[in-house]
Specification:
The chain has 121 residues and is α+β, with helices and mostly antiparallel strands. Helices cover 19% and strands 27% of the residues. The longest helix is centred in the last third of the chain and has 14 residues. The termini are close together.
Amino acid sequence: MSSTASACYKLIFYVPPRDLEAVKTAVFKTGAGEFPGGKYKQTCWETTGTGQFLPVKGAGANPAIGELLADGSAFHLERVEEVRCEILCTDRETAVKAVGALKRAHPYEEPAYEVYKLEDL
């Protein structure tokens, strides 16, 4: 990427394995995952790990995954297998569209994601 080229971004998100392909497909439809010059498309990097969260019943949490305690007073602490997926976005507009597609396709109430602006060093 030359100094006159537009800035690239990296979108990183976490998703249950069963939903990975559907979420990636939605994100790729925005043009994310294409390398500058168009020689490669639908590129990403994936790794599996464990996510943890505790839904807060009194705060209105409506988790896609989660069980209440036997007395119904609160949720259990959840630990779930997730895939971390990293996808390149060749410009800010694509990154914004990719995040929108991610939010629409993701099964979680609040999907975890990060966006980084990349520098050519």
